[in-house]
Amino acid sequence: EVLLVESGGGVVQPGGSLRLSCAASGFTLNYNFFAMHWVRQAPGKGLEWVSLINGDGSRTYYGDSVKGRFTVSRDNSKNSLYLQMNSLRKEDTALYYCVKDRGYDSPDGMDVWGQGTTVTVS
Amino acid sequence: SYELTQPPSVSVSPGQTATITCSGDILGYTFPSWYQQKPGQSPVLVIYQIDKRPSGIPERFSGSNSGNTATLTISGTHVLDEADYYCQAWDGNTDVIFGGGTKLTVL
């Protein structure tokens, strides 16, 4: 069973930075076969896609609200995913999910979700 | 940027069929997915590539797509199906889009 465990959330002041991590385990195929996402959910709100990285890390994509401030990366040797968040704003306050996709290069259904890590900008 | 529009809420009686729609221009050329999220839990993929069910998802969940509208249908709805449901699609270029979510009430 694939398991995703996020860490790195916390309370940060506006303009500050935070780095989220996600540790993946239980893959029957190699971790680098799959694209990964960060998806966030503000308190009481819907899901908002943040970022996507393809299997080998060569392609990255970002939602408009975080473009230029957030950077996604992965270390396939460590089965890990990261999100560097800079210039944080109050509206970035949310639960951040690490999510595995079924696809390698482009989205094909987000089939495994972590429990999330909370980021509070205040 | 593209948008996906869902009704904020849908109500259904137990045992009846629930229908949740998702509308958007990109649905004419992309394969939507659907997610179920119960309070306090992480979302769960229930449909991908328009109409495919991941293993472990009951057969009563089905998906379809016609023109610019995707539909999630839950046949013989159970009380346990009460949750928020989100559609999601890839614009084929750079963006992943989620619908605003639909709260399904079973009563």
What can you tell me about this protein's structure?
The complex is a heterodimer of chains A (122) and B (107). With 122 residues, chain A is mainly β. Chain A is built from no helices and 11 strands. Chain A has strands spanning 3-7, 10-12, 18-25, 36-41, 47-53, 60-62, 70-75, 80-85, 94-101, 110-113, 117-121. In chain A, the strands form 2 sheets. In chain A, strands 2, 4, 5, 6, 9, 10 and 11 form a 7-stranded mixed beta sheet that branches. Chain A is globular, with a radius of gyration of 13 Å. Chain B has 107 residues and is mainly beta. Chain B contains no helices and 9 strands. In chain B, the strands form 2 sheets. In chain B, strands 1, 3, 4, 7, 8 and 9 form a 6-stranded mixed beta sheet that branches. In chain B, strands 2-6-5 form a 3-stranded antiparallel beta sheet, with no helix packed on it.
